[in-house]
Amino acid sequence: MGRPTDLVQGTLDLLILKTISLEPKHGWAIAKRIQQVSGDVLQVQQGSLYPALHRLEQQLWIKARWTESETGRKAKYYSLTAAGRAQLEKETANWSRLSGAINLVIQSAQE
Amino acid sequence: MLWVQRLWLRLQTLSSRRRVVEQLDDEIQFHLDQQTSEYVAAGMDREEARHAAMRSFGNRTLLQERTMETWGWGTLDQLGQDLRYGFRGMRRDVGSTVFAILIAGLGIGGASTVFSAVNAVLLRPLPFRDPGRLVWISNGENYSTQAEHYSDLREQNQSFADLAGWSGFYRVGDKELTGIGEPERLTSVPVSENFFALLGVEPAMGRSFTREECQGRYSAPPAMLLSHSFWRNRFASDPNVVGRKLMLDNEPVIVVGVLPGSFDFASVFAPGTPIDIFIPWPLTDKTKPAGNTMAIVGRLKPGVTVQSAQAEFTGLAKQLGSQHPERNPINPRLVPLERHVSGQVRPALLVLMCAVGLVMLIVCVNLSHLQMARMGTRQKEMAIRAALGAGRFRLLRQMLTESVTLSCCSAALGLLLAVAGTRELAHLNAFNLPLLESVRVDGSTLAFTLLAAVASGVLFGLAPALQVSAYKLREGLQDAGRESSGSSRHGRFSDGLVVSEFALACILLVGAALLIQSFLRVLDVNLGFQPERAAALRIDPSFRTSSLAQQNSFIDDVLHRTRSVPGIAAAGVTDVLPLGGDRGWQVSGNGQVYEKGRHPEAFVRVVSDGYFEALGIPLKSGREFTESDRASSEPVVVVNETLARTLWPGQDPIGQMMTQDGGRRVVGVVADVHHGGPERSGGSEMYLPMRQTKDYPEMELVVRTALPPDRLAAGIRMALRPIDPNLPVSTFQTLQDLVDKAVSPRRFLVMLLAGFAGFALLLASLGIYALISYSVNQRTREIGIRMSLGASERLVQREVLIKTLRLTLTGVAIGTLASFALTKWIESLLFGTTPTDPVVFLGVILLLCSAALVAGYVPARRASRVDPMIALRAN
């Protein structure tokens, strides 16, 4: 798959923030979700999720809580903070602008 | 306030680190387990699913580390790891670690001690308010100015907010304290009314002098201030001392205050003479002291520079000189007070600082060498680390961490040494260096020590570290027990280190040797008197002698009784001991006329019969004073050779008349005495018979004796008690002590410098010893082969020694050239020698070569004892 995925991985933060914006999730579920929703296009190496998660946590955009998972075992659930929600909106807007711009360039090139 | 919360979170991850790491581990484990269960549910068997889960996760260790890095403490983590490696390395090689800490500790200790002294004397501001605006105003080369000039300057100048002064003519033990315990002689400084206010010194207790108190009689001050140390020692810090009446020279004087501990007059203005009390100095028209007696300090107005003040004062002085031809000439010279105080010791301290710098460099070179040797044994370890993925930068950092850890341990040791050293320095009363009492380890010394430690750690660690990273991995992994071709670079580098060590040591030794030679020359100076076996005691009568007759009978009595004490070879009385006092008068022979400003001046000493004999001042012609030179006989004078030559060049001075006191006949000529210290030539001197004048400030009894000072004191006190039961119980001062004190600043410099130079020599010798030993060890096999092929023991020995000598001579040659260029900077500190004295240079070269040969001989001998069979079988 090569290049495009790399680009997407640069915006891993955005994907994580979006994924947990609806409900708190643990790391594995986040990875799973991103894979499923993107129709397996976005092959995130599962482990690389964790540095990103922890960085976001240090930024106070997401917060974590240890609660029981569906299997009954304790897991670390991440959820958005207020600051994170603001960040998500910002990054979403950024992304739309960027992808819109790229689309425009590509379409004009086709013409 | 998001950043505060972020910082808080960050600190939390740091403080509960272990728990956070465990949680991360759990979190990842949970992830893997989830994934495994999913794969199992999809039909894989458990083991296979586990592996697949791990594969899809990626490199767990690496990712875990990456995650931990996001906590922001990655550098710290690695540092901790490096420190652990470092300590492990140090423990593995205890011997060389202890050695390294020891020599670096000694070096850092010396550096910190010298820095403390430099800090106290040169860097720290004087303990006064806004000291940068204080200016020392001297009168030409002379110390002091006439009080009339002072008053006029003070009123007329525009540059200074105010001027203040004290009497430059106070003497040690001028005042006698009686009435509480044993009588005691005190040193008092008369100061002008505004003196403390000008410096910005507030009494710690009580108050300063009032205007009324400054208008009394000079000889009978109404009030006094105690110095902090006198208050502490004599009154045990009694808080009720203010308001007490004490008997000073048999007059009641009220203690009005105690000065703060931070104000140490002596250490700033008169190093080596502790001051006990301060008394007001009346400067009203009626009581103005005569002659050049005032030492003046001024506080500049804001924005005025010393230069412009100097210009104004030069103009004012010219004006005053023409307005008042009857006064003494005045030639004001303005220097910032800080420069005046530290000026004399500045070059010496700078030299010491440079010496310490050189020592530290040698220490670093030595340690560099040591580290290299240790690296040699650790090449394999490093190679494995590199093979396992440690980056070059990471390895470099690890090595530097190790060396800095080592140097920080040394810094701890050095700091202990510095604390001890500065304590020792601060209590060296024998040295009259300014501000020495305030030498201590303070914040800036700590900072300096830390800096020195880190800098030297980086310096001595850098070379070996770079060597390691330049080292080829493959070579390190090959089991190369012997010197391989890749190491010749390494060998050359070590040679370079040893050469530079010898060059540095050479510079240091040349400097030290030149100063030692100067010191010896100073000790060799013929002072004009024999300090050995001469001692002095202050004996001013505690009663007032109202007439010359009464005074003379006191002198007669004292001398007769003293001479009757067994063991006394000669005794005399003087008003001032050699190497002290600078009372000077303008002098002329009868009929001689000099224009103003070119008048000869002579130092005045008032002495009794027996004084020249007691001090061992040789009589050149004529006669000494006798008991019969009295008030009733012809006024006479004894001059020194210089004065005789000045006033009557080419003539016989005996029998000539001087204009002093209405005419004095010269009866004798004595040898010149170096009264300004051994390093300054004497100048003109004249001696007046004590029985013909009352114009002298104090009485010192000088005796020549073989008795030890304490037995002497007891004998004399017993002999003199009948004439003056209140004779203060002070101890005898030997003249040798006086001389020692006069040369003490030089002794101080020489002692420290010689210590550093010796240390440098030791380090250089150790360095070359280590290098030669190492190379002999590496070449054992080669030597064995050659010996089995017929090389004699002698040849082998000679070869090793030649290598030693070659390195030494290279270093010494560089060092000698550098010394040639550098020693001219210390010319001002030299006495009786030149910066390029060939004897010194030759001596140093010989010393270094012989030290190197001794150091090289041990391994050379070992090499020649190599048993070819054993050497060949080894490896």
Question: Can you tell me about this structure?
Answer:
The complex is a heterodimer of chains A (111) and B (875). Chain A has a single domain, classed as Winged helix-like DNA-binding domain superfamily/Winged helix DNA-binding domain (Arc Repressor Mutant, subunit A, Orthogonal Bundle). Chain A starts with a helix and ends with a helix. In chain A, strand 2 and strand 3 (74-80) form a beta hairpin. Chain A is of the alpha+beta class and 111 residues long. Chain A is globular, with a radius of gyration of 16 Å. Chain A is built from 5 helices and 3 strands, in the order H-H-E-H-H-E-E-H. Chain A has a 3-stranded antiparallel β-sheet. Chain A has helices at residues 3-10, 12-19, 27-37, 49-58, 82-110, and strands at residues 25-26, 62-68, 74-80. Chain B is α+β, with helices and mostly antiparallel strands. Chain B has 27 helices and 24 strands. In chain B, a hairpin with a 2-residue loop joins strand 9 (245-248) and strand 10 (251-258). In chain B, helix 2 (17-41) crosses helix 3 (46-57), helix 17 runs antiparallel to helix 23 and helix 17 (487-524) packs across helix 26. Chain B is elongated and about 135 Å long. The two termini of chain B are 68 Å apart. Residues 480-486 of chain B have low confidence and may be disordered.
